Amino acid sequence: MSIVGTLAVAAYIAAQMLSDIASLKIGYVLGLAVDMGTFIYPVTFTLRDVVHKALGHHNARALVIAAGVINLLMALYFVWISNVPPAPGWNNNAAFKTIMAPVWRIVVASIIAEVFSELTDTEVYQWFVTKITRRYQWLRVLVSNSVSVPIDNIIFAVGAFAFTLPWSAVLDIFIFNLLIKYGMTILSLPLIYLTKHDSE
Fold first, then answer.
1. What is the DSSP letter of 155?
2. Taking the mean position of all CA atoms in its chain, how far away is CA 165?
3. pTM listed for this prediction
């Protein structure tokens, strides 16, 4: 495994986990409701593209599935530690449980959105490099992300928040997430050049 591939896998898993934890908070930014995982999650699409380029199609798909399983195990672990009786004198258990015990609808929607959209990203990326061109590497990232980001966005926003938040707040989350994810796609495009050659 190349150094770039190894680092991209580590960064992908870390970003997935951090974004799932942060998504448990709904903030208010620039007048819009937004899940706070929005600010780190979008980079995972380009990191997945880097893994795809460095390690190949099958390894990229395996990474997406592994990340989904890891995030599910993380959520289960937080449930368990939140319900372990606190040590005498440690008075923060209620606050810890409130913050860290995941809201299952958000967790499930997040994992489904991540896996489905990132697998879509994998297939669009593979189609682009095999059927269109291996040139214009920035364009392969832009094309694959442009297909997968809206898919991720609609699954997460509706799956996590429909019928629990007002539809106006769900729409806010959708719009804000879309803007941030496309912005991060543009900013993260240069990452695809970290590795020189496509893995066959």
1. H
2. 22
3. 0.88
Establish how many alpha carbons lie within 13 A of residue 160's alpha carbon, considering only the half-sphere containing its beta carbon.
Answer: 30
- Token pair of 123 as six digits: 């297939």
CB 17 within 8 A of CB 68: no
Q: What is the DSSP string of 128-181?
A: IIIII-SS-HHHHHHHHHHHHHHHHHHHHHHHHHBTTB-HHHHHHHHHHHHHHH
Minimal CA–CA distance to 139: which of 195, 64, 192, 194?
192
pLDDT over threshold 60, residue 200: no
Per the listing, tokens 């719009």 go with: 175
Confidence band for 2, pLDDT divided at 50, 70 and 90 = confident
42: number of Cβ within 10 Å: 25
Structure tokens belonging to residue 128: 């682009």
Rounded CA gap, 20 and 13, in Å?
11
Report the C-alpha gap between 131 and 159 in whole angstroms. 33
